[in-house]
Structure formats: C-alpha cells, structure tokens
Amino acid sequence: MKKNLSNQSAIIMVIAAVILVGTIFVPWWGMKFYAPQYPEGLDIIVHPTGLEGDIDVVNGLNHYIGMTPFSNDTFPELPYIRYIVIAISVLIVVGAVLRNKKFLYGLIGIFAVSGAVGIYDMHRWLRKFGTELDPNAPIELEPFVPPMIGENTIANFVTNSYFTYGAFMLAAVLILLVIPLWKDRAK
Amino acid sequence: MGQINIKGVIWLFISGICFVVSIFFPWWALRLVAPQYKEGLYIWVYPYKMDGEIDIINSLNHYIGMKEFSEASFPELDYLPYIIGGIAFITIIIALIRNRTALMIWTGVVLVLAMLGVYDIYRWLRTFGTNLDPSAPINIDPFIPPIVGTNQLANFETFSFFSYGAVLCTIAIIILLIVLWKGKERHV
Amino acid sequence: MNTKRIMSGIIGVLAGLLVAMIVFTDFNQTETVSSADNKTNAEKVYVAPGEQDDYYMMASGGHSGQLFVYGLPSMRLIRQVPVFSPDPATGYGFDKKSKEMLNGYKWGDFHHPAISETEGEYDGRALFASDVGNNRAAYVDLETFHTTDILEIPNISGPHCAAFVTPNSEYFFLPTRFSVPLGDEYVGLDDFSEEYKGVMSAVKPDFENNSLEIAYQVMLPPWSYDLSDAGKGQSNGWGFLSTYNTEEATTTLEINASQNDRDYIVMFNWEQISKEVEEGNYEEVNGVKMFDPLEHPGSVYLVPAPKSPHGVDVTPDGDHFIASGKLSPTTTMFSVEKALEAIENEDFQGEAQGLPILTYESVVDKEVEVGLGPLHTQFDDKGNAYTTLFIDSQVVKWDLESGKVIDKEEVSYSPGHLTAVEGDTAAPGGDWLVSLNKIAKDHYLSVGPSHPESMDLIDISGETIEVVGSAPSQPEPHYAQIINADKINTTEVYDKDEDRENAVWDQADTRIERDGDEVHVYGIAMRSRFIFDADSDRPDTVTVKEGDTVHFHITNTDRDEDITHGMGINGYNENFEIQPGETKTLTIEADKSGSYPIYCTNFCSALHQEMTGYLLVEPK
Description:
Chain A has 187 residues and is an alpha+beta fold. Chain A is 51% helix and 18% strand. Chain A has helices spanning 7-22, 55-62, 78-98, 101-131, 165-183; strands spanning 29-35, 38-47, 50-53, 150-154, 157-163. In chain A, a hairpin with a 2-residue loop joins β2 (38-47) and β3 (50-53). Chain A binds chain C through residues 35-37, 39-40, 136-139, 155-156, and chain C through 254-256, 258-259, 308, 327, 372-373, 391-394, 410, 412-414, 439, 441-442.
C-alpha cells in the first residue's frame, strides 16, 4: 500500500488514537435536573462504560410520572461501546503505521458513521423514556422528548442536557484525523 | 375651757369617720424588689389583717433564717380594729358633749397611742430583723428595716412606707388639733 | 379703598407663605414613609429580650405526639406541651393522672390542632388534638397549657381528617384516613368495598370540666378521608371532607388510589345528623351511637373534586369551599349556594356507595391555575387566598374574587400546610403567614441525616408576599394555628385549694401512712427541701419495705410564678414535675431494696442542689 501520509501526520493519528482511548475514562453526556428542593441539581452523567450521578434519586422521582427507571442494564449497548472505541483506536494506529490516505478516508468514514449512530441511539432512548410513560402513574404528563442539548421543563423540574469532555475529545479526534488529509493534500 | 363650736363638732365627726374608714385600708406596707421580682413583692398591713405575697416572702426569708410572719404572729391584729373603732367612738362622744377640756385630753391620748403604734411597728421590725436563726443557709448581720424608706438586703431592695390608712389617721389627728386650736365657741 | 387693602393683605400673606415654603421646605426629602414600612426584614421579626410576641402559633408535633407552642413573629419555640406521648422532663405519663390518660400508649401522631371557636373565631379556651397513630382525641386547656383529657375512640382508625371544630365549638369531628371493618372484627381485604367503613366521630367538648365525650359516629364509605373544614355563614351546619382512594384500592395506594381523575368532597349536614341521632336514628356499635346516612338519607352528599384532593378550606364568609387537587395544577373553588341549590333540585350526576354525587358543573365556581401540587389554603382580611404548592415549593397568593394569581414566593422546601394569622376563621388577621415545610435539607446547620422540619415566616401585609424569617422545628408540625396573644389568658400558679384530694399545705400536716403494703406519702416540695414527714428526724426521707407500693402525693407549696419543683428518684427510673400550687401523685413499686436518693430535677432556687432526700427500701 502506498505510504502517502507524512511522519507528522502519523504522529497526529497516534495522538488521536490515544485521545480516543482516553474518552473511555471520561463522561460523554450529562443531564442536570433542578427543582426548588434540589437547588444544587441532580445529575445523570453518561460514561461510555456506564451511568453515574444521582440515578437512584432521579429514578425515585421519575416513578411519580411513570417513567421506566434507568440503569446500566436498561442500555444493552453500554458494555460494547468501550470495545468499539478501542477497536477504532487500534484501526487509527494501524492507519498511522500504514500511512495510507485511502485507509484514512475509510477511518474517518467509520468514525463519522459511528458518531451518527451514537447520536441517533441517544435520541431513541430519550424519546423512549419520555414517551413510554406508565398510564397508571399518579401524575399524568403529556409524553415528551427531552432535548439532547439545552433546557426543558418537566413538572417542577428544569432539565439541562449537555455534551461533556468525552464528546469534546471525540470531536478533537475527528479534527485530528482530518488534519493529515489537509496537510498531506496533493500539491 | 369652754365649748366646741358647731363647725368644730362637724369636723370632729369627720375625724371620727376618718378613723373608722382607716380600718379598711392598709396602714403600712413593705415592697421587696429583686431582679427576678421586678414587679415587686408586697406586704400590706391592715389593722385587722396582712395581705400581699406573704407566702412567697416567707419562703424566701427562710433562707436568711427570718421567722415566718403570718397574721397569727401579730396578736395586735386581733384587737387593733376595736381600738381604732373605740378611738372613733370616743371622738364622736366628745363631739356630742362639745367639751374642749375633754378634747384636749383626748387629743393627747390619741397622740400617745399613735406613737405607741409606730413604736410597735419598730419593735416588730427589730424582732424580725435581729432574731435570725443562726443555722440558716445564708448568714447575714442582724438589721432593722426602716419604718419608712429603702434598705438593701442581699439581692432585695426594700421600700417601706405608710399607706392610706395611716394617711387617714394622720388627717383625723390633724383635725383634732385644728378643732382644739380654732373650734372655741365665741359667746358663752 | 377697603378692597384694595384687603387684597394687598391677602397678597402679603401669600407672599409670606411662599417665602416660608422656599426657606423651610426640604427639597431633599423624596417621600414620606411610615416607620412600619421602613422596617427591614430583621426589624419586622425582632422581638427584643423581655418583650413578648404578638401571636401564639400552636403547631402539632406530628409523630412526637406533642404540641409545639411558638411565638410570632420571632418564631421562638416557647414550650413543647406533651399531649399523646410521655414526656420524661415534665413527668407526663409518669404521675398518676397523666399515666391514666395515656393508658400505656407509647406514642401518638398529632396531626391537626383545632382551637375552640365562638361565632367562627378563636376564643382561646381550649385546643383539640387528633391522634392519627392511636385513634385518640385530646383536650388541651389553654389556661394552663396542660392536657386535661384524652379520649380513646372506637370504630375509627387514623383520624387524619381532624380535628375541625364547628363555629361555636358544638362539636369537633374526626373522620378517618384508614377504613376498617366495624366493631374491631376480622374481615379479609377482598371484602373491602362491602365490609370496611370510613367512620367519622363527632366529639363534644365540655368546657366546664375540660373534658371530651363521643357524641355519635357517622358511617361513611371505605375511602380515605384526608382533610376537613366546618362551614360558617351560609354554610353553617355543614362540614366538608376531602377524600382519596375512592378507587377503594387495597394495595399500593400510591398508584392504585391515583387512577380516578376525580375524587370527592363529602358535604355533610352535622346539624341535621345531630338532630336525627337525638331522635334515635342510630345503632349502637361498640357502645357508640352510629348513624348510617344510607338508612337516613338527606344529610350526606358528594361533590366531584380534582384527583386526590388534599386540603378543603371554607372561605372566611362561608360562601365557598376550596379543594386542592394535590396531583393536579389547579385548585377548585365551589359555591356553597350552588351546592345547596343542587341538593334542593336533586341535581345529581350519579351516586357512589349509595351517596348522591352533585353535578360538578352545577357546583363549581372556578378552577384556579395556581401551580403544581396545591395542598392547603388560608385567607387574609382582604379577600385573598394563600395556597401551598408542594411540588413547586411555593406559596401562591391569589384573589378569591377573580381567581387571579397575585404573587408567588419560594419556600424551602416542599410546603405541606400553611397557617396565616387566624387564617381559617371567620375573621382572618392578614399580617403573617407561616409555611410548614416538609423538607429542610440544606437550610440550617447540618446535624447529619435526620433533619429538622423547616418553617418560613412570610409577611403578607403588602401586595406582594415575602419570606422574612425561617426557623427549624422538631418533627413534625403538620398543621398550626396562629392566635392573637390577647385571646389567651393563662394561670401561672394553681389555686391553694384546701379541699383538693391528697394536698398538704401546712408543713405540720405532712405524713407517711401505711396501709398493709401500701405506703402513702403526703409531702411538700418547697424551696429548697422536700418534707415528707415533718415530725420525723429526717423529714425528707421515706423508709419502706421491699415489695411495698409507694404513693408520693406531693404538693408544691411555693405558689410563686415559675417555681416548679421536680422529683426524681435516682436509680428507680421515675421523675415528675409539680407546678406551683399543684398536687400530683407518683406511684412506684419498691421492688428493689437499697438506698435511693430523691432530688429536685427542675432547678428551683439557689439551694436547689441541696433539695434532696432518700428513699430507703429495706430488704425483705
């Protein structure tokens, strides 16, 4: 295979792979719930490895509106994400060794598609939790879809959703992968 | 000496009435004030009874070994109303017989009785203030509370004063003196 | 000539005034404000040492079983008065009388206090208490702030929907939160709808003897009766109860009792029921006169109200009643006039458990969008209502006439009841309101996981409302009533009653009498000694034999304000208090021999430490 990427580009790709592996250890997405009696806010923090934050408290409150409780078990994709991330990282390192542009195109393609699937998956979950409410719940709410980013009001709670470190790092990885293409563009 | 004029007779009647009325008012009082008794604790002495926060004062006084006082500890209270009634009665008799000599003697007697009364109060104050139980929890030097005026006793400030009954009696005695001085019939 | 003179005179005076104005007017003065408006929040609630508060707030103590007495506006806790549970500090539940009143109960759950009323206004004579935990009612004499009577009530279970007093304190009612089979019988839960009943008790206070008696009971459907209020004005003679679980669920009520979109307000005509009972229209159940509205119809009606309503509150004029649907964002105002008309015209939309349901549309006045989780409503003197919003953690002020929301104020957090100055009477005050919050959370210095409750003091004297103070409370005031301090007339010292049973006033009369193995001590507690037997060498020592029953009849002869004596028996697990001029009896079983010090437990005097004695129990 043709080695048409520079040494510098290869280094950048290795850095991208390292950052990508690093995302496993930081949260990707979060949601904060504020209410008068929770001025400090309740957190749901999504890591690629699992959920963190005040999950039990949020579930305890959500049952009043008939929302399905969420836990690591309710998201079957969680156990696989870390392997997907590692696999892509390995591929990026392989790309750095091969220094092949076409391979890099393929990598960027895989990365972008995975990202899009990931975002769609999140949206699917948000819609599922917000719309499939138990009709027997004490408090009846109109079904709703919480936004992936930004504010929403459910009963006395104001929610704030946001992407965090992991997501930013993923974006950085994407940018780092694109840089070699630009740097080593055909002159 | 001559007769008492009609004005004098009327005044003597008023004097007699003053004596009688004084029976129903307190003659002398003691007020004790301490930080926790801002409103003051009172002993009111009537010719026939004692009134006020006697029980509370007794229970406080036992700490300094003072004898308890009650109506029973003052035998005078049993016959004082009769003495005062008697004084009033004799005053009115004198008004009726209109004899100035009798009035003069009578005025003298009343003045002596009044002094005896004041002495009696003093005697009691001295008895209570000096005959303190030596085994009492709080030892204080024997003292004689003043008949009129303030005194400091441990955390208590005491105020003693003559009250309405004594004032009425004083008026009655002054009337006796004025009648004696001014109440002479001009033509015999 | 003359006119000219007069004119020049007038002009001269005007000129003078103008000069005076210019010279003396302070142009820096922006506006004149009265000193009351000028007060800072701190000044509004500040009550200087030695000064007294304007109001009493009588707060129920919830599962502590006690009554909490606060001063307002300082929010100072003045006293905890034991009602339904023992109180070791005062010896409530230890001495003979209070032990008999408590009858072995270890706890109570005091939910809603009700101050006695005359013509729909607090009269300050007594306070009635209800015990959700053990089905009791209590009479607290407001002259002494002592509980003087406790009534155990059969057939009911959990009188949460109590106590609400009729406008002239004819009765107070205790409807129940839990339904049970009549007559303490066992019936399986499958027969709940048929065999279980929600019974309401009418209790009659006796102001002469400071006591209570059951007048009659009313058999109601097996629903949960939550809160209540008595009618006044044109609704006088009626009572209003809120219900939930009209689904008649028997398990997981959280879900299963939250299914119906509407539950009911029960309207019952207590005047008519009282008359019918007098006429003999009742059956005896467990020794109580039981009235069945199904057999004698025409006194109980149902009004549909929004999902699981909590509070039902009658307006000061008695023309409306307001039901707050705790799971709906509205509070619903009903017209008494329309309801009475609907009853008259038999305008019914159906029936439930045999009771007629008035047509909702015929009775409703308006639905007010107050916010999330409305629970309870109180009133001021200017035609406004104040409602707590549990879910939103707010108190909302709204106009009764228009239903318009005027202001909302955040409280911390999750308010249950609220109480305004005489805010549930015919003549509310209108200067203060206290929000009784269920969650204190981060509001006070932390004491670990068990938090106090929180109470927010709200100034409602202006157009907008503002929290100006906050105080923690022990668990757990559910409802409170605020009464003008002028209406409470207390006695600080008990009368020297020479005829009182077991009382000893003269030290010479103190004595110890033995009757078999019963020993009666007729003693005195005074500053600073006990006298059990004045003739004894050791007047403050009681010597008995192991196995004796010892009755200490102790009179506090210090009839002086705040000279309370206590009597604790070291090692015998007994203690009680005797107030100035009071006589109390403590009975103990001298079942272990030994020498046990007796001492005054309530600091009384400079020589309090010396106020001791001995209980000597000789071995068998």
